[in-house]
Structures are given as structure tokens and as C-alpha cells.
């Protein structure tokens, strides 16, 4: 049986092929799964998809009609999958419930420090042999307040780094994490966190209840010189509202590894054709904003764990086992 893997990056391909070697046959495609590419899966019982795959009802219907019975998504998030339709079509869906939280937490801090210390601007200047310090003034993190929205595994890892900086810790989540409390975190209402934090980092999943959790009101409640970082899901931030606040000269810096309309853009080379997304085009023009391409998870450690879990999900499916990664069981 050949497994078809969509949206495989060049760095990932040898890792996927090695992980499946001697276990299952796998064919890697660099194209992403969407309405146009779904027919390619015809005749493949098992497919694997990336985080930006389109697994809406029309795509799932095409997959089911072509004989697909199992979808192994290579990510933790699954907001791109219509699970109700998948269940109705008897499609088994599995994800990766865990991978290195340090990959994302460390990258979130990389974004925070890059905007704080103006690293991109400084590096660009020195390439032109401009060694002035004008406009590069940052600030110490020690003694300042960090607000962490979402204190699961990744949020906890981020908090531990903040604790190492010597910061005051504020947190918000539906359930308190004892490990964060032990570090000295105080759980508070979102409104207080927005008002008091010098640095705000998002680590909650994208759910109907968290869609645009950072909306116009939340942005206006934040300090004018706050730093905002999102390495979770783009839909957590109302990007249009963020652009409005940035145009008003607010925020010391914003670091975004995700964008709410990133599907069809991120992981692709658009340098020659450009983009027609006016909001993103405006966003990247601000000197205090850094946008990266959903790469926070992209370390050898995390990608290796994601691939290993994907192999296990496929093996469990073939053995008719149901594990913790299964979102829609086999019927």
C-alpha cells in the first residue's frame, strides 16, 4: 500500500521517507491538499496532510469518493478539518497530539527579542556598513511583566524562559497549570493581563471561543509600548484591527509566525508573482513588525516527533487500534 503525503517540505522529505522505510511505502508531494489537488489522492486509502491543508467538506467528499479512508495530519492543530463531515463519510482522522513544546516556545521568544532589540533592522544596516545605533534602542526584560495566554505545554515552556529572565508572570487559561503557579505565575482576567503586560504571547488553540481573542478592544487595552507575539494560530488575532493600531503608532513590536489568511500563501514562494492580500502586504511594511512563515515548530526535534507520531498513527489504523491521536475513529 502506498501512502500519499501532501505538503511535504524539502527538509521533511528525507525524514519522512526514512521513518516509513521498511514499514510502509510513501510518496511525498510538495503540493498542498485543497479542492484542486484532492483528486490526486484517488486510489490511496491513506493520505497524510500538513497544517495548512484544506480539509473542508468538499475536499473530504472528493477524498472519500476516491477511496481514501484515513487522514493522518502532521500537526497538533485541526481547525482546518471539518470533523463532522469526516465522521459522516467514515473517514478516520488522526493528528499529532504532542511534539516538542520547546520548539514553539523558544521561537516565540526569538520573535519577542528580535522586535525588542531591532535585530532585523540592525542586520540590514550592517550589510550596508551602516553601524549607527539610532532607532535600535531596546529594553531589558528583567523586572517587566509578561502575559501568557494559554499555559499548556508550550505556554509552560514559554513561562519557564520568562521566569529565567526574571519577569513578573501573569497568565490566563481555562485551567491553571500548577507548574506555572509554582514558578510564581498569577492567573488573572484577560482584561488585566492586556492592561499590565509589557509582553503578551499567545499559546491557546484556535476554537470558536478563541477566534479573534485579540480583537479591537483587547488591542486598545494593551500598553502603547507592549510587545505582542503570536506563534499559535493566526485566527487568534483580528489582523485588520491590528493594522489599524499599528498605523496609529502603537506597540514596541509585533512578532507573528502565523496569519489568519495564511492558507495558500505560507510555505509557498510568492516572491515573483506577489500577493493580493492587502492586509498582509500592509502588515509587513511596519518597521516594528516581524512576520515569519509558520516555522515555530520547524526544528529537527519537533519535526522528527511529528513524523514518528504520523507513522504510528498509520500503523495503528492498519492494526485497527485507536490511540490518543485519533480525532475521528474508524467506523
UniProtKB/TrEMBL annotation:
Signal peptide: none
The enzyme's E.C. designation: 1.1.1.28
Chain segments annotated as coiled-coil in the UniProt record: none
Stored CDD domains: LDH_like_2
GO molecular function: D-lactate dehydrogenase (NAD+) activity
Domain D-isomer specific 2-hydroxyacid dehydrogenase catalytic: 8-326
Keyword annotations: NAD, Oxidoreductase
D-isomer specific 2-hydroxyacid dehydrogenase NAD-binding domain ranges (all copies): 110-296
Key word NAD present: yes
The family this protein is said to belong to: Belongs to the D-isomer specific 2-hydroxyacid dehydrogenase family.
Name of the featured protein: D-lactate dehydrogenase (EC)
Organism, as annotated: Streptomyces globisporus
Amino acid at each position: 500500500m502506498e501512502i500519499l503525503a501532501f505538503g511535504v517540505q524539502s527538509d521533511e522529505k528525507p525524514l519522512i521517507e526514512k521513518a516509513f522505510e521498511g514499514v510502509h511505502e510513501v510518496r511525498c508531494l510538495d503540493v498542498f491538499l485543497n479542492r484542486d489537488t484532492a483528486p490526486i489522492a484517488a486510489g490511496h486509502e491513506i493520505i497524510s496532510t500538513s497544517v495548512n491543508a484544506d480539509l473542508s467538506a468538499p475536499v473530504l467528499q472528493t477524498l472519500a469518493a476516491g477511496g481514501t479512508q484515513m487522514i493522518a495530519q502532521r500537526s497538533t492543530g485541526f481547525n482546518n478539518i471539518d470533523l463532522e463531515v469526516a465522521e459522516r463519510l467514515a473517514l478516520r482522522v488522526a493528528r499529532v497530539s504532542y511534539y516538542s513544546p520547546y520548539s514553539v516556545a523558544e521561537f516565540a521568544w526569538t520573535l519577542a527579542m528580535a522586535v525588542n532589540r531591532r535585530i532585523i533592522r540592525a542586520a540590514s544596516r550592517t550589510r550596508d556598513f551602516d553601524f549607527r545605533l539610532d532607532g535600535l534602542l531596546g529594553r531589558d526584560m528583567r523586572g517587566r511583566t509578561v502575559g501568557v495566554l494559554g499555559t499548556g505545554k508550550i505556554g509552560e515552556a514559554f513561562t519557564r524562559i520568562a521566569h529565567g529572565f526574571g519577569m513578573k508572570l501573569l497568565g490566563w487559561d481555562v485551567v491553571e497549570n500548577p507548574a506555572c503557579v509554582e514558578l510564581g505565575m498569577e492567573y488573572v482576567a484577560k482584561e488585566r493581563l492586556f492592561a499590565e503586560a509589557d509582553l503578551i504571547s499567545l499559546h491557546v488553540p484556535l476554537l470558536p471561543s478563541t477566534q479573534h481573542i485579540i480583537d479591537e478592544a483587547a488591542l486598545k487595552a494593551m500598553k502603547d509600548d507592549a510587545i505582542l507575539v503570536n506563534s499559535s494560530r493566526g485566527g487568534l488575532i483580528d489582523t485588520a484591527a491590528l493594522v489599524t493600531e499599528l498605523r496609529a503608532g502603537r506597540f514596541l513590536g509585533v512578532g507573528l509566525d502565523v496569519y489568519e489568511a495564511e492558507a495558500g500563501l505560507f510555505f509557498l514562494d510568492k516572491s515573483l508573482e506577489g500577493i493580493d492580500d492587502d492586509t498582509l502586504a500592509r502588515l509587513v511594511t511596519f518597521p516594528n513588525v516581524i512576520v515569519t512563515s509558520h516555522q515555530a515548530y520547524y526544528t529537527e526535534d519537533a519535526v522528527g516527533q511529528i513524523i514518528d507520531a504520523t507513522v504510528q498513527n498509520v500503523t495503528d489504523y492498519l492494526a485497527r487500534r485507536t490511540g490518543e491521536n485519533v480525532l475521528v475513529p474508524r467506523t
